[in-house]
Amino acid sequence: MRFWPPGKSLLISIPLTFLFWNNRSISLSASDQHYLQAFIKEWKITGKKDLVHKDFNSEIGLLKDLQQHILASISHKEIAPERFGNTAWYFQNRQGFCYDRAALLEKFCLLYGFPFRHAYLYYDSSGKRPDVFSLFKPKLSSHAMVEVKTCKGWMVMDTNSDLVGLSEKGEVVNLAQLRAELLSGSLRLQDSITCGAFFYKPGKTNFAFVYGLYSRHGNFFSGTSGSHHASMGVSWFHIPDYIISGCSFKVFEHIDKKKGFPGGKPFQYVPFGQAGCCSLRLEVMAL
């Protein structure tokens, strides 16, 4: 068995402690369910929850339908951070950015029983992929997307356009595959983008991503450490909000009880610049 040296163990324990301290989750309240049903009625979505997962076509049909309606209903306008994830507010005001549309899609995923993971993308126009320290830079260009687990696997869905991660052969495409194919120019999707603004500009944008990160400034969720510092009169602008379950999906998805970890290497420390999960990666995450 391989062990991390003491120095690396300390470097790893600090961010992990930070993540668990700030861990939050998205859930469905009675109000959420009421307004999600109101959206469903307005959009005339007929798929029943108990029949959605009968096959892949049923899952994709519903997910595409939800994405199209969310794009058409939530106009692109920045709203106050405290409105984030407020389904009632989205229904009544129809405004939000990519992360608002992502939160709304995720709540529909909860309602219909789809596992999901929120993806925070960050990038700049220099063409260089940013490293983890870029997360703490003001005015960092960013975007939010959602990966949804279908019966064929994880599929990425955009929140500013109707991009759906389905290849020409009908295979699901996750975010890591999408990035690789965008960079190589080999991306061939089943459906063309017909509405919205695609976040990626060939030759100008290279992005990194983190699962489970919603906000770099701690305003979306009332974070434990953020509240503690605020009570002391200390203003922290760049405290992230993480959903650890979004990160852990990537771990447990690849662990096979018989074969163990891929390559027979239980743990591997990966440099920050490779855009891992919460800046610390197990080898199996391979982001």
Key terms for this structure?
287 residues, disordered C terminus, 14% strand, alpha+beta, single chain, 4-stranded antiparallel β-sheet, two-stranded parallel ribbon, globular
Q: What does this protein structure show overall?
A:
By secondary structure, the chain is an alpha+beta fold. It is 34% helix and 14% strand. It has helices spanning 6-21, 30-43, 56-73, 87-93, 98-112, 175-184, 224-231, 244-253; strands at residues 75-76, 95-96, 116-124, 141-150, 153-157, 206-211, 213-215, 241-242. The strands form three sheets. It has a four-stranded antiparallel beta sheet, sandwiched between helices. The chain has a two-stranded parallel ribbon with strand order 1-2. Strands 7-8 form a two-stranded antiparallel sheet. Helix 4 links the parallel strand 1 and strand 2. The longest helix has 18 residues, at 56-73. The protein starts with 5 loop residues before the first helix and ends in a 34-residue tail after the last helix. Mean pLDDT is 74; it is low at 223-239 and 245-287.
